[in-house]
Amino acid sequence: MSDPVPFENGRRQRLVLILGALAAVALALHMFASILLPFVLGTLIAYLLDPLADRLEAVGVPRSLAAVLLVVAMLALIVAFFLLLYPLILAQLTILIQLVPQYIRLLSQLIQESLLWLEERLGPEFVDQRLRQLALNQVNTMLAWVTGTIATVVGGGVQLFNVLMVVVVTPIVAFYLLRDWPRMVAHVDSWVPRRYATTVREIAREIDRILSAWVRGQALVCLIFAVFYAVALTAAGLQLGLIVGLTAGLISFIPYVGTLTGFVISVGMAMAQFSDWRDVALIAGIFAFGNIIEGYVIYPRLLGERVELHAVWVLFALFAGGAVLGFIGVLLAVPTAAAIGVVARYWLKRYRESPLYLDEGDA
């Protein structure tokens, strides 16, 4: 009979090692959160481009050259995108700055008329002058805050150093990680205890399968809907259709938030711009059609059952990550959620195969 002491010692060492590694990662994220953005972005870019680099390497292209070509191509696409859309977006932002006071005044008028309507229906003792004044003061406060925020952002509120750091460092990080990706994976694999190597590799492959399907599928979904909403809203005559459509499409990776946000903003703007309710109904119909196409055509074909990430779980992960680490947390939320989901399913499978679950006790 084998001595249980070495087994218990090894088990205790593994537990201490895992907890220590998790604590070190949490401490590093807390201490260096302010400088992590280009490194996280570079890692995500390298992860997305790794399959293409593997294909280029398979046809005889050196890994370093493949990494350079892919990173340069990605940068060229981003620069071309901004060069084409920058004048249009700038024009739309100028219109937005001019229209914000008008929208706030219309909102103030709507609130005042609603309070007067309530006073006529419920009596002056229910809606008094103080309540009306409080509502109007809140609207004025909102106007000052929105105007100041837009002026700050457009006027250069983002620190130049941080922007330059992201623009310059991110491609460099992406190149080196993409070039060394196979070697880094091999090094990490060599650190895994041999006893658990097969299990860890199986879990890692499952995480990679789910994460790659979600990220690449959601990227296509966001691109498709950004183009669709921008073109459809602009064609429908909405003044800020381009910027609202792009925003609604690009934040579609957050379940329900992109479509709902775009719908509320677009319909509100349409009500302020158009006098004919048919035009407002057309704007609402665009988002209704987009939601139907997303739910029944695009999402099943591009993502389908491969993802295994429930929308509520993704939504919770995104908000939790944002609450803990801000934008960095949002970027890390889905990979973390995918890993937790795979590990949880693995342990649930182990539990259902264990005597603890299978033991039915005395009949």
Radius of gyration: 27 Å
Query: What is the CA-CA span between the terminal residues?
Result: 33 Å
Largest sheet: none
**Percent of residues in beta strands:** under 5%
Q: How would you state the average pLDDT, rounded?
A: 78
Class by alpha and beta content: mainly alpha
Question: Can you tell me about this structure?
Answer:
- The protein has 363 residues and is mainly α.
- It contains 12 helices and no strands.
- It has helices spanning 4-31, 37-58, 63-122, 129-154, 160-191, 197-235, 241-250, 257-273, 277-302, 311-325, 327-352, 355-358.
- The two termini are 33 Å apart.
- The relative contact order is 0.08.
Quick rundown:
The protein is mainly alpha-helical. The chain has helices spanning 4-31, 37-58, 63-122, 129-154, 160-191, 197-235, 241-250, 257-273, 277-302, 311-325, 327-352, 355-358.
Tags for this model:
363 residues, mainly alpha
List strands and helices in order, with pairings.
Blueprint: H1 4-31, H2 37-58, H3 63-122, H4 129-154, H5 160-191, H6 197-235, H7 241-250, H8 257-273, H9 277-302, H10 311-325, H11 327-352, H12 355-358
